[in-house]
Specification:
The protein is mainly α and 1376 residues long. It is 60% helix and 5% strand. The chain is built from 62 helices and 14 strands. The strands form four sheets. Strands 6-7-8-5-9 form a five-stranded parallel β-sheet, sandwiched between helices. It has a four-stranded mixed β-sheet with strand order 1-3-4-2. The protein is flat and about 130 Å long. It starts with a strand and ends with a helix. About 9% of the residues have low confidence.
Length: 1376
């Protein structure tokens, strides 16, 4: 093969790339690539010839290593002696590698390389050069062998580099002298490899050494003494005669010069690096391996002025190979098309390197097209979690799209354009307008919405705060829209232990939503990081459990990584990469600092940086490397923890630097430059301002600049914590106070606004610049932000720091800040934080029943703070806090001032299932507001109230009242609010107060000339009008519908719409239309964050589809799609849907357990029934018995059906009509007539007639809905009264009507009923034909269990044969 010397002395190594295979630890795949996280892209790449020489050197050393091992293993410690071997005696075998394809795959079987030439077939370097010229730039080193023509006593074996050295090698005794001899010999060969000339003969070296010695002697004793007095870092280096010659030649990087020197002089302790000698071939292999894995680091020559300033530990990522490999596998390896959302949780103690690890992964995967979105929570700003996350994640997402659009890359521009189209398609104008408050940069991405925003602000409607579920919808749709394109997203939430409960809930719902989209979830990787130990809250554990549940459903794949301390190898890698030294030179230092820090990552980084800063680790220009004294390291005194080390470092700062840090720490983990500039104008800054001190603090590793240098961030929260806690308590409180008052002076916080809303006080939202600017485009400071920060600073000082007059002032600040959080950001958790602090500043001792005095100057302030706290708690679903704050108000103010609190308290009672208490309290409030509601409801009172309301309402010109623009007074508004909040609990317990409340509210609204906000009352009134078959029922239904349409605001009354379409309008529409309306209402409710109405709309859609005869397999799939979300939001809507799903499974013959969706809380039908009875959820109890009735009816078990129907009708909830009612009446009527014909008694005929009369009363509502049912009941009546001809004709008509209206199940039912009747009058042939048609209909419907039962009971298999035989006979008779 081609000789190595011939190869290296040609220019071919400068024009091709050589690769190694087989040794994964030293060179993984493409050895020319940099190991992730360890390289520095600011450094230049080494020359190609040098890198190729390093790879050939590694291959050669590896061959000697294997040869030495083989000899020792089989020849009883016989060491291999290559001293006489020259580079001329060696040949290398290469094979051309496939062209680069981006995956660095250079391994494989020989069959994969069959098309590439073998250099053993190349006779000269000219042939190789020709192949390179033809494009053969990539070559794989297969092995190194002895030249067959070499006249040597021993041959170097053909070494393929997947040969492994087993563990017995480490236990073999080694002759140290022979080992040093071997290392020296290899060093000389490598010398030839790199310098392109043989190592000088012994006499040449001795002559050179003698000259150096004579020169030293001429220097005299004085010079020697002076040199000895020099600092160690400036003394003469090891083996200067060879090392210095190699350096001065300039042919090789310093690292190679050091390796050659130390290996050649390994048997001469005076000439090698005595503290770190090369003792084995492993040392050479490791040195070369470092150079190959990170050539820019280890083959890079530092400048002569390279010093401590160039070194800072913690910048690069080192170690954690197992965790890094696992993460890169998750993010870069393609997964199965059905794989779930990749979810990664990284945990560990504080300072263990979690953020550093994920940052390194994020930097790497960004090269694979990932978009990186990161948010970090702050210990001091937990209440601001949502704003931080939405701004950091969604703001970055949109900003990235804007940058792509404005960039020069055509693919980025096209991607941004398609993203805008996808977002605009998913979100309408109203939704995009809602996004402006959350993600202001959306205006830059979609400029068209600015026009819509202008129209919105100029209209009479003021924007309403976004609810939790509206944000879930908006953010989910935004994220899914972008994920629907080809690029991936790497979403990171750091320090989850400080995240607020509401943001954890929000993000879990957004990711839950996303996991339901098969393609989109495959393009998202979610990473959550948090600390271990006591800081893991129950909220955080619930957050993690959500993803475990998703994994159980197959919608997510969860990976948990727990970071332990760094290993010694990790520390070696950290020091080696930063100091650019091989392992043998740093192992001692690494071992010392590892033992002192116990491998704690932050402690380790801080300690190493302190050793550099105090010159314990110093750069030696003569040795051309960083150096340290072993004695200094061994005697190193270190603090016992990272916190102590940080404190000791703070003491070394100048007073001005420390003051700068202390002020910055008051803001938390980060702050903006703009805020610091404001503080400078108030004399709070260090002498000369903040800017002169920040660069040095950054060099010290205490702080760093982010966001295009607009923010200052502490390097770690432990540093910020230590800086803040190091300030004496009183001094710290005073500092918070000074900062708060200074910033507040730039806001209208102290402007009296009793007669002026806060919006008016903030006409100019910015201190300077154009208020339409977004993001960081102008130099203004947002006044709203200043209000929140100033108030938070005061709160950090605490109420006890201030006198009473100041407390009142700051309580009002908290009220302002809380109102801003609700109005501008819909951040209810942050608002609650401010309201609670405001209450604490007042120092109230309320709850003792003492009324607050109206003439007290604090009355209004107290009331608003408590109302704000109760309102925010309600929005957050914190029922206990709602009760706490609302009851304080109710106990301390007059009734008129407690209406808001009463409204919130009733809603809280309803939300926690206390329906009776909610209704009782609501009715009591309405009575106090003078609404005429009887104290004891009964059927007579309901009928009288309905009649009275109807007669009074007919006296009004409804169109005039409905279109009235008069201002609604506070009392009327709260009446309507109370009605809205009473309806749901009253329906749940079938309260007889419900129709009475509806009637009273309708009369009240008409008397006060305002119907728009009383729409719910009109819907309730129409609901009972329809059920009682009142002659004006349709009129009132139309009025309710008109009110819904006329009073459509930016946030429509979705819950009232649900009540109307689910319980009123369905009587007048085809069930298919009702189903479509429910689906539309589901989307609308999601858009506006009304999750209750959304889930109940989907629940009712499924029920309408089931009852109208939609294909059961399709309805089953819809259940499977939406049930997981229903369960996560409300077990109520999920319970109703599971009941319907169980019916579907029974009719289809499926054996699945639909109760498994409850994860063990509800295991079967009986446990659901028991749970509903305990909670007095009578609607669920009724739904269970109605389901049992429907299933028993369809399966022909009339005894079970009768029992279930009777029990359902006996429940109080049966008095509340629902969509199942018409079908219940219809099926019970059919069952009654057939039981009568089966001889079960005359009472069943009367029952059937009663059911028939009920349908006759409803048929005019919607003939599409009721006519086929009525005609089929008439058929059964004719059949029961022996009207044969009329019965047959009526059956045929019922069949036709069911078919024409798309009721396939009722068409089958009509065929089955007709078949039974014909069988009873002994028309067997036609009877069987009807049964066969019924079987076809049931099969088409998907009710396979029902179809099989009919087939077997009527023996349709033989019947088909008889019918076919009869048909043939009939045809023959016709031919005759």
């Amino acid at each position: 093969s081609l000789g190595i010397r011939t190869l290296i002395e040609s220019d071919c190594p400068s024009r091709c790339d050589l690769f190694l295979v087989g040794d994964d630890e030293l060179c993984d795949g493409d050895c020319g690539s940099e190991e992730e996280g360890t390289d520095d892209n600011t450094l230049s790449s080494p020359p190609r010839r040098i890198l190729n020489s390093v790879k050939l050197s590694l291959a050669l050393t590896r061959a000697f290593h294997v040869k030495s091992y083989t000899n020792r293993k089989h020849s009883n410690n016989t060491n291999y002696d290559p001293s006489s071997l020259l580079l001329d005696d060696l040949v290398v075998t290469l094979r051309q590698a496939p062209a680069a394809n981006g995956d660095n795959d250079v391994g494989g079987d020989d069959g994969e390389w069959s098309s590439f030439p073998d250099l053993s077939m190349i006779s000269s370097i000219e042939d190789f050069d020709a192949l390179i010229l033809e494009g053969g730039h990539r070559w794989i080193i297969l092995g190194i062998t002895m030249d067959n023509n070499a006249n040597k006593n021993d041959n170097l074996i053909n070494t393929v580099f997947d040969d492994k050295v087993d563990e017995s090698y480490a236990t073999m005794k080694v002759d140290m002298a022979a080992a040093a001899h071997l290392i020296t010999a290899i060093g000389k060969l490598l010398y030839h490899m790199f310098l392109l000339k043989p190592f000088p003969r012994l006499e040449e070296v001795e002559s050179s050494t003698l000259e150096c010695k004579e020169e030293d002697e001429r220097g005299g004793i004085e010079e020697a003494v002076a040199a000895a007095a020099q600092p160690r870092s400036k003394r003469r280096g090891p083996s200067e005669s060879l090392f210095q010659q190699l350096i001065e030649s300039g042919d090789c990087p310093i690292s190679i010069c050091r390796l050659l020197n130390d290996s050649i002089n390994s048997n001469n302790g005076m000439d090698s690096d005595r503290a770190h000698p090369i003792t084995s071939l492993d040392d050479i292999l490791l040195d070369l391996g470092f150079m190959i894995s990170s050539p820019r680091l280890f083959l890079h020559d530092p400048e002569r002025d390279f010093s401590q300033a160039a070194v800072h530990f913690g910048q690069r990522f080192n170690g954690r190979k197992r965790e890094l490999s696992e993460l890169l596998n998750i993010t870069t390896v393609p997964h199965d098309e059905n794989s779930g959302l990749q979810t990664i949780f990284v945990s560990g103690i504080a300072g263990s390197g979690k953020s550093h690890l994920i940052s390194a992964v994020g930097s790497f995967v960004s090269n694979f097209g990932y978009m990186i979105l990161t948010a970090k929570f702050d210990r001091e700003k937990g209440h601001e979690s949502r704003e931080m996350v939405l701004g950091a994640i969604m703001g970055t997402l949109v900003t990235n799209l804007v940058k792509m659009r404005d960039g020069d890359d055509e693919s980025d521009v096209d991607y941004s354009r398609r993203a805008v189209d996808a977002i605009s398609e998913a979100l309408d104008t109203d939704s995009l307008l809602s996004l402006i408050d959350i993600v202001p940069s959306i205006q830059q991405l979609i400029p068209e919405i600015r026009t819509a925003q202008h129209k919105e602000t100029s209209s009479c409607h003021s924007p309403e705060p976004s609810t939790h579920w509206q944000l879930v919808f908006l953010l989910s749709e935004l994220l899914i829209s972008v994920l629907g394109l080809e690029r991936k997203i790497f979403l990171v939430l750091d320090d989850l232990q400080w995240a607020d409960k509401s943001i954890l809930s929000l993000m879990s719902e957004v990711l839950n939503w996303t996991s339901g989209h098969l393609q989109e979830r495959r393009r998202l990787v979610f990473v959550g990081m948090h600390r271990d130990g006591d800081e893991v809250s129950s909220d955080l554990m619930s957050f993690r459990t959500c993803f475990v549940n998703l994994e159980a459903e197959g919608r997510a794949h969860v990976t948990a990584i727990e970071l332990s301390t760094l290993s010694l190898d990790d520390v070696v890698e950290m020091i080696s990469s930063e100091l650019r030294l091989p392992r043998r030179l740093v192992i001692g230092l690494a071992d010392a600092v590892h033992k002192r820090t116990h491998g704690h990552a932050l402690f380790l980084v801080q300690l190493l940086n302190s050793l550099v800063s105090d010159s314990t680790i110093a750069y030696s220009p003569l040795n051309r490397r960083f150096d340290w004294a072993k004695l200094d390291i061994d005697n190193l005194k270190t603090p016992d923890s990272v916190a102590s080390l940080i404190v000791s470092k703070l003491k070394s700062l100048s007073p001005e630097e420390l003051k700068c840090l202390r002020i910055i720490s008051c803001f938390g983990m980060h702050t903006d430059y703009k805020l610091l500039e404001l503080l400078e104008s108030f004399g709070l800054a260090p002498r000369g301002g903040f800017m002169p001190y920040l660069p040095n603090l950054a060099v010290q590793g205490v702080v760093e600049a982010t966001g295009h240098s607009t923010r200052i961030v502490f390097s770690h929260d432990l540093i910020q914590e230590q800086v803040l806690t190091s300030i004496p308590a009183e001094e710290r409180k005073q500092l918070h106070h000074n900062i708060g008052v200074a910033l507040a002076s730039k806001t209208p916080l102290d402007i009296r606004t009793e007669h002026r809303p806060i919006d008016a006080a903030l006409d100019q939202l910015y201190l300077s610049g154009d208020s339409s600017g977004t993001d960081n485009e102008n130099d203004s400071v947002d006044v709203s932000m200043l209000i929140r920060i100033a108030t938070s600073q005061i709160n950090n000082a605490g109420p006890d720091f201030f006198v009473e007059a100041q407390r009142t002032r700051f309580a009002s600040w908290n009220l302002r800040a809380g109102n801003l959080e609700v109005a501008e950001h819909s951040s209810f958790r942050a608002a609650l934080y401010y309201y609670q602090d405001g209450i604490s500043f007042l120092g109230d001792k309320c709850g003792d029943g003492q009324l607050w005095l109206r003439d007290d100057t604090l009355y209004e302030l107290r009331l608003k703070l408590y109302e704000g706290a109760a309102f925010s708690s309600s929005a957050l679903g914190e029922a206990g806090l709602v009760s706490k704050y609302a009851n304080v108000i109710i106990a301390n103010v007059e009734f008129e001032d407690s209406l808001q609190a009463e409204h919130l308290l009733i809603g809280s009672l309803s939300a926690t299932g206390q329906y009776k208490e909610a209704v009782a309290r609501g009715v009591a409030c309405l009575r106090q507001l003078k609404l005429d509601i009887p104290a004891t409801p009964n059927p007579v009172a309901v009928i009288e109230a309905m009649a009275q309301t109807t007669s009074e309402a007919l006296l009004y010109d409804f169109n005039q009242v409905a279109n009235s623009q008069r201002r609604v007074d506070q009392k009327t508004r709260y009446v309507n609010k109370l009605v809205d909040v009473i309806v749901t609990p009253a329906y749940h317990i079938a309260s007889p107060f419900l129709p009475l409340v509806g009637c009273a509210a309708v009369r009240f609204s008409l008397q006060n000339g305002e119907c728009g906000e009383a729409t719910t009352a009109f819907v309730v009134f129409a609901y009972f009008q329809v059920f009682l078959r009142h002659e004006h029922a349709r009129h009132w239904a139309n009025i309710a519908k008109q009110l819904l349409e006329q009073h459509n605001t930016r946030r429509p009354a979705t819950r009232t719409r649900f009540l109307f379409h689910a319980f009123v309008n369905f009587w007048y529409a085809h069930p298919g239309e009702s189903s479509n309306r429910m689906m539309g209402l589901y989307d609308l409710s999601l858009k506006f964050g009304d999750m209750f109405s959304a889930q109940m709309s989907q629940c009712m859609r499924i029920r309408f589809d089931l009852l109208r005869g939609e294909q059961l397999s399709l309805v089953s799939k819809i259940c499977d799609t939406y049930l997981p979300r229903m369960v996560s939001f409300s077990s109520g809507s999920a319970a109703f849907t599971v009941i319907d799903k169980e019916m579907i499974d029974t009719l289809m013959g499926n054996k699945s357990n639909c109760y498994a969706i409850f994860n063990g809380k509800i295991t079967d039908r009986e446990s659901l029934l028991a749970d509903a009875k305990i909670k007095s959820s009578f609607q669920i109890v009724e739904a269970l018995y109605l389901q049992k009735f429907f299933v028993s009816f369809w399966m022909g078990d009339y005894d079970e059906a009768v029992a279930a129907s009777d029990f359902a009708l006996s429940l109080s909830s049966a008095k509340m009509p629902k969509p199942q009612l018409p079908f219940h009446i219809f099926y019970r009527g059919i069952m009654a007539f057939q039981l009568f014909r089966d001889g079960k008694g005359e009472s069943w005929l009367a029952e059937g007639k009663a059911m028939l009369a009920q349908l006759e009363a409803w048929v005019d509502n919607s003939r599409q809905f009721f006519e086929n049912k009525l005609v089929l009941l008439e058929s059964e009546h004719y059949a029961s009264t022996a009207h044969v001809v009329a019965a047959k004709e009526s059956y045929e008509l019922a069949i036709a009507l069911a078919r024409d209206n798309g009721y396939i199940h009722e068409q089958g039912l009509a065929y089955e009923c007709m078949g039974k009747y014909l069988a009873s009058i002994v028309e067997v042939h036609d009877s069987k034909r009807c049964f066969i048609n019924a079987h076809k209909c049931y099969t088409s419907w998907g009710a396979l269990a029902k179809a099989r039962k009919l087939w077997n009971e009527e023996d349709l298999n033989s019947s088909i044969q008889c019918i076919e035989t009869s048909a043939v006979k009939h045809e023959r008779d016709e031919e005759k």
